[in-house]
Amino acid sequence: GYTNVAPTNMIFFDLESSKISGEGKKTIEEIAKQALAEQNRVEHILLVGRTDKVGDAKHNKKLSSQRAMNVKKELIRRGVAPQRIAIK
């Protein structure tokens, strides 16, 4: 099952950017540590990409997807198995 994501696990991006900040990488490091420690109890991590409401809906959907994919790549780099990470 899925565990609800606490607000402390949110990663914020600069406007119109999918680049992960230094602060974002610290958050990802914490999420990865928690995921690895709880891998027997928590099966999946659900990443939900978001943007603000400003601008073109198609562009925002692509940007939110890029943001989630970049976070997934960072989690994988830190040892989280790709098959445990779902993107919405």
Q: What is the percentage of strand-forming residues? A: 5-15%
Give average pLDDT, whole number.
88
The rounded distance between the terminal residues' Cα atoms is 15 Å
Shape estimate: globular
Strand order of the largest sheet: 1-2
Q: What is the number of beta strands?
A: 2
Helix content: 40-55%
Main beta sheet: 2 strands, parallel
Q: Catalogue the unreliable spans.
A: none
Rg over alpha carbons: 13 Å
| Element pattern in H and E | HEHE
The structural class is mainly alpha
Helical segment tally? 2
Keywords for this entry:
single chain; 88 residues; mainly alpha; 2 helices; globular
Please specify the SSE layout and strand pairing:
Layout (H helix, E strand, L loop, with lengths): L21 H16 L7 E3 L9 H21 L7 E3 L1
Parallel strand pairs: 1-2
Helix pairs in contact: 1-2
Provide structural commentary:
The chain has 88 residues and is mostly helical. Helices cover 42% and strands 7% of the residues. It is built from two helices and two strands. Strands 1-2 form a two-stranded parallel ribbon.
Briefly say what this structure is.
The chain is mostly helical and about 90 residues long.
